[in-house]
Specification:
The chain is an alpha/beta fold. It has a single domain, classed as Rossmann fold (3-Layer(aba) Sandwich). Helix content is 24%, strand content 31%. Strand 3 (57-61), helix 2 (67-74) and strand 4 form a beta-alpha-beta unit. 35% of the residues are buried.
Length: 193
Amino acid sequence: MRKKKPQTQSNGHIRIISGKFKGRKLPVKDVEGLRPTTDRVKETLFNWLMSDIRDASILDCFAGSGSLGFECLSRFAKEATFVELDKGAVNQIKANTLTLALDNAFVFHTSALEFLKNNQKGQSFDVVFLDPPFRKDLLSPCCELLEQHHWLHDDTLIYVEFEKESQPKLPDNWQLLKEKQAGQVMCMLFSRT
């Protein structure tokens, strides 16, 4: 009888779907709770954002694999800021920035809530991605901090992903532009007014 090989956790890949790094596959650490945005959802999202990424300043909170930020950089965003709590995921994002020879990617190893509490430089972003771990009630506090600490300007685009059954409190001055349901996930794009 043949012995079964022990099961090991395997790392995966994300694929960049368009731009200067089109088709590149980047390794992703196998981290509990990490769920990179699927290619299908990512294609929909970047169809929504098609004319808004070039030369934009990007904030990828809960960056995880960095998939959304890397897609923006491939599409000629001015810069991308990645915020991620998991050390293994952070190290992989940093390794992938080196692989792609990026000098406009900034990686912060901290919680999104802690990062958003401090905006000493008065920085604001053109596009913000909020895709927090599910069932942790992180989305509403992040939205509040984005507003309180002036991370957004008028017309900033904010993409949020959350589980369908939750009802996050989103700021009243965010206008819904697009929405899509993908299985149990709600995807919404807002513009700050």
